[in-house]
Specification:
The protein is α/β, with parallel strands linked by helices. The chain is 33% helix and 18% strand. The chain folds into 2 domains: 80-323, Type I PLP-dependent aspartate aminotransferase-like (Major domain) (Aspartate Aminotransferase, domain 2, 3-Layer(aba) Sandwich); 348-420, Alpha-Beta Complex (Aspartate Aminotransferase, domain 1).
């Protein structure tokens, strides 16, 4: 059968009926098979426009966005400062190669190191690539600089570090590993907050401990400060590197520019992506100066890492976050969101816990919440899950109190209707 003969034949109906209820196309034949691999279980929405905290679909319906592309659009949709910098750059230069000096990389790296405990930056394209670079740097530091055979990375159950073979192996969730055997050697996962298990996992082969300060995909669990103290002590005692995965927590989301700042520590390595480029695909791996000796010329690279376009987005994003004091604003609005949710949901037994840090909040429920996500979309609010029973809220850092109150009321309505 030709592609043409397999096309959808449909009868077009008006967008709304007499009382304003949206109607859909009535298909008279099955939908044609997509040319895309079906790797995403997509929601039945096509979003075509965004501004600030709001998104619109291809039918003109407006949604209050409390997921921010999964913590990506930290400045809201289509931020003017980033758009202007990209428009200027797109008329000048898109790509050369990392075989040449790229001034935008130096400027973006200087912004990051000036505002963090890191001394050096490697730019890439995603969070998984940033974590892959961190794993490679930890191994190479021990093997080429310290002249040891160390290679193992210890991570934690329910963590999430990416989808490459190394980073999904580092991830402490079995579901992402199914069908990808054999997995690379050199990774151990232990339960979070289990000191005995962590101590038992350390051996002469251990190179680093890798940690998220808030386990986002694992249920929105902030790490206990006392356990962070245990980890840093063990790293000192055993000569291990500490890697902090800031892919989702970084760039002001938790109320600090980087979430490890809440704990008063300085990691050897940390990683960024998501909110780093306001929606432009970019990642970064940052490290202490003594690690430069491990990543020498030819040891690692990326064709598209740190392009002039990506660096324009990164510069504008960082400058905006710092100039507008968005981490401080996220702390304030996060507290307001927490209290607003408590006010709206506190008397509903179905809600078991509300937790998180800054504008990274989870609502734990008594049952799976997938149906609540769809119900929210029908009411005009977008949020996602963090594990089967947790609603994850990730509004942009400019979110207003009015938008927070509106979101809390809509979520409460969705939950009450579900319970009823």
């Amino acid at each position: 059968m030709s592609k043409e003969s397999n096309a959808l034949v449909s009868e077009e109906l008006p967008n709304t009926d007499a009382i304003g209820v949206r109607t859909e196309k009535v298909a008279t034949e099955a939908q044609p098979q997509s040319s895309l691999f079906p790797t995403y279980a997509r929601y039945p929405l096509s979003l075509v426009k965004g501004q600030g905290s709001w998104l619109w679909d291809d039918q003109g319906k407006r949604y209050l966005d409390f997921m921010s592309g999964i913590a990506v659009t930290n400045l809201g949709h289509a931020p003017q400062a980033v758009a202007e910098r990209l428009k200027k750059q797109i008329d000048e230069l898109w790509h050369v190669s990392n075989l040449f000096h790229i001034p935008g990389q130096e400027r973006a790296a200087a912004l990051l190191t000036a505002n963090s405990s890191a001394d050096a930056v490697f730019f890439c394209n995603s969070g998984a690539e940033a974590n892959e670079a961190a794993i490679k740097l930890a191994r190479r530091y021990h093997q080429k600089v310290k002249q040891t055979s160390r290679y193992e990375i210890i991570t934690f159950t329910q963590s999430f570090h990416g989808r490459t073979l190394a980073t999904l192996t580092a991830t402490g969730q079995d579901k992402v590993k199914e069908g990808f055997l054999p997995l690379p050697a050199g990774f151990k996962s232990v339960p979070l907050h289990d000191q005995a298990a962590l101590e038992a996992a350390i051996s002469e082969n251990t190179a680093a401990i890798m940690l998220e300060m808030v386990q986002a995909e694992g249920g929105m669990y902030p790490v206990d400060p006392a356990f962070v103290g245990v980890i840093t002590k063990l790293c000192r005692e055993h000569g291990l590197l500490l890697i902090i995965d800031e892919v989702q927590t970084g760039m002001g989301r938790t109320g600090k520019l980087f979430s490890f700042e809440h704990y008063g520590i300085e990691p050897d390595i940390f990683t960024l992506a998501k909110g780093l480029g306001s929606g432009f695909s970019v990642g970064a791996m940052l490290g202490k100066g003594y690690l430069r000796e491990a990543f020498t010329a030819g040891s690692h690279g990326s064709t598209f890492g740190g392009t002039p376009l990506a660096m324009a987005a990164v510069q504008a994003t960082i400058e905006t976050i710092i100039d507008d004091k968005l981490p401080e604003r996220a702390a304030e609005m996060g507290e307001y969101l927490f209290h607003s949710l408590q006010k709206q949901l506190g008397d509903i037994p179905f809600v078991k816990d509300i937790r998180g840090k800054g504008l990274m909040v989870g609502i734990e429920c008594a049952e799976p919440v997938a149906e609540l996500v769809l119900a929210g979309q029908k009411k005009g609010i977008l949020f996602i899950t963090a594990g089967p029973n947790v609603i994850r809220l990730l509004p942009n850092l400019y979110v207003t109190k009015e938008e927070i109150d509106q979101a809390a009321a809509m979520i409460a309505e969705v939950i009450r209707e579900h319970v009823a």
